[in-house]
Structure formats: structure tokens, C-alpha cells
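Ticket #269: bound-state structure for 2-oxoglutaric acid.
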Amino acid sequence: MELQRFSKNAAVDDIVNALRRDGAAVIENLVGEAIVDDLKSDLREPFDTLGRETENDFNGYRTLRINSVLELSRTSAELIGHAKAKAVMDEILLEYCKSYRIGSCTAIEIHPGEKDQVLHRDDSIYPVRMPGLEMQMSVMWALDDFTIENGATRVVPGSHRWIEPRDVREGDEIVQAPMSKGSALFYLGSTQHGGGGNNSDETRAGLVNTYALGWLRQEVNQYLSIPQEVVLSYPRHIQELIGYAGHGDDLGWYPNPEGEGWLPGYTES
Ligand SMILES: O=C(O)CCC(=O)C(=O)O
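RESOLUTION: The complex was predicted; output attached.
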């Protein structure tokens, strides 16, 4: 099978239905090339200086990764807080929480010679499984054209509906999600997926952002990762996604001694 593909003006309900059925879907050309080029240019030096720090068997040894993307590139906020991504997230995640937050934002550049990443579910970081409840969602933005040869993300359609989580085994269908630069692959936290091996002579860069239910601990500690002065320079909806908001009135509240809200200059909506 092929994952379903949508244009950027497609109805959110149609995208959500495809996600609920297949576990993943592509929205083509969701942002223009200029934004992507700006982001890539901001990330070049960090990729080259910091990108090898997280090398391991899971992340690969021919793949560069950077985590603190919001600190390194203001343009990243346009993707992380993209209105269409949030509209899809609202439908999938707000069924189980009052607000959601980013879990992680990771720029990934897969270099020639990298092998297939092990297929996995992103929500396995949370040690519970309640069928039907989605704890998180991911959006992988293509910062280059993703092709079969250069490592387009691999996905196991329908794996989010497996009643008992298990490893992928022979016979499970695996599809790849090639897409043009500026397109985005959406997938549920319970969907088995992984980066593809790069059998080309070019690199494949992507930015993958996870969004988790607001009552769960964030995968990456955003308060320590992003300096407060950088957080303050972002609009409120990005500050909230970073985590500067309570979950309703009961979780994560903070009686700021300096006055209203979370940070100087920040007032909760
Ligand atoms: O690079 C990709 O296409 C997917 C990466 C991924 O799933 C991960 O690192 O968790």
C-alpha cells in the first residue's frame, strides 16, 4: 500500500481519518522552499559541530542530530507551531488532555552509507499502553527531497492498531514515505517507523517534532534546553508548546513571585 497524501489545503478531518486508519499520512508542500532553506542554513554549523554527540546504535553512526533546535533557529518555530500541524494535533491529542506540548524537536541529517534505523514506536518512552489512547504524535518535515534511495522514513501502516505492542516481524508491510522538500510526514506515537538507510550520494535532512499529552513528562527537558531569554523572544503559542503553561489549573502550576504568569513578560491566556 501507499500512505495517503494530501495537499496543504486538505480538510483536517480527512487527514485525521487517514492517520487513524493507517497510522501515518503525508501533507505535500506544506511550507515553501524559502523557509526550509533558512532553517537549513541556521542548522548547518550546529549539524557540523554538535551533530555527532548523540551517535549510538539507535541514532546511527552516519547520521548527524541536533536537539535544541528552537534555540538554534528561529525559523524552526514556524514549523514547530505550524497551524495545520496544530489543527491535526488538536483533533488527535485534545481528546485526552487539556493542552499538549512538544516532547522533542530533532534535526536529523542522514549521510550516505547509513543503514536502516531500527523500526520503533515513539511512545514506548511511556511505560503504559492503553489501546486507543494516543500519547503523542510526530511531524517529520522534509528539509531535502526525501527519496527511497536517500533514506525516506519507513513506516509500518496499521501498526498503531496492534493490540499488544510488539517488534516488527517478517511479513509486516513496510512502506517508505518519499516526499518533496517542504512536505511533512505525520505519524502517531504508536506507529512503528524509522529512518531509512541512505544508499545515495547525497544527505537527507529532516526536522522531526513530537507533541505529547500535556500531563506527560516531556521527552527532552525543554526548560533546561532552551535559555529563558530565547523562550521570551518567542510568541506565546510557542512558549506554551515549549511547556510554559500549566495543564489546566492543577498540573505544573507555578506561583510566579514576580507577578502574573510564568515568566517576566508572560501572561497566561
Ligand atoms: O529519520 C527519520 O526518518 C526517522 C527518525 C526517527 O524515527 C527517530 O529517530 O526516532
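RESOLUTION NOTES: The beta strands are 4-6, 24-27, 63-66, 100-110, 136-142, 154-155, 175-176, 184-188, 193-194, 204-213.
TICKET STATUS: resolved
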